[in-house]
């Protein structure tokens, strides 16, 4: 997978995953198991928070065999980091392209995104 592909313009709206939701990504970073907070999600991408040293993380880095758990759904996927942004407290927000592993995983992602969008649209404040 090319880095150029990972840099393509976003075509799907990002949906912030707020604190009322249970959302995490289980993966291996630097060869060690990690569970990361999911910050936002779309049909094409994911952003997650990295608390630890990020020196070995960089745009273009693939994270294979990740498992995203959101709203009771389990989505197996590969991700490719597209950007890294510093946050308060030394944390880092990593944005990545998301590639569901199977058609079933794609369908689960579609269901979760549709549910979050629906709840956002029905919310008086417009935020799910």
CATH superfamily: predicted glycosyltransferase like domains
Number of discrete helical segments: 2
| Gyration radius over CA | 14 Å
Provide mean pLDDT, rounded: 81
Q: Could you say what the CATH topology is called?
A: Thrombin, subunit H
Q: Based on CA inertia axes, which overall geometry fits?
A: globular
The low-confidence parts are 1-12
- Using DSSP, what is the number of strands? 7
Structural class designation: alpha+beta
Number of domains: 1
Assembly type: single chain
Biggest sheet, open or closed, and with what strands and sense? 6 strands, antiparallel, barrel
CATH architecture descriptor text: Beta Barrel
User: CA-to-CA gap between the ends?
Assistant: 33 Å
Helix content: 10-25%
For the record, the CATH class is Mainly Beta
SSE pattern = HEEEEEEEH
* Lateral strand order in the biggest sheet: 2-3-4-7-6-5
Please give a structural write-up.
- The chain is of the alpha+beta class.
- It has one domain: Beta Barrel (Thrombin, subunit H).
- Helices cover 19% and strands 45% of the residues.
- It is built from 2 helices and 7 strands; from the N terminus they run αβββββββα.
- The longest helix is centred in the C-terminal third of the chain and has 20 residues, at 103-122.
Secondary structure topology:
Layout: H1 3-6, E1 15-16, E2 23-29, E3 32-41, E4 45-50, E5 62-70, E6 73-86, E7 92-100, H2 103-122
Antiparallel strand pairs: 1-3, 2-3, 2-5, 3-4, 4-7, 5-6, 6-7
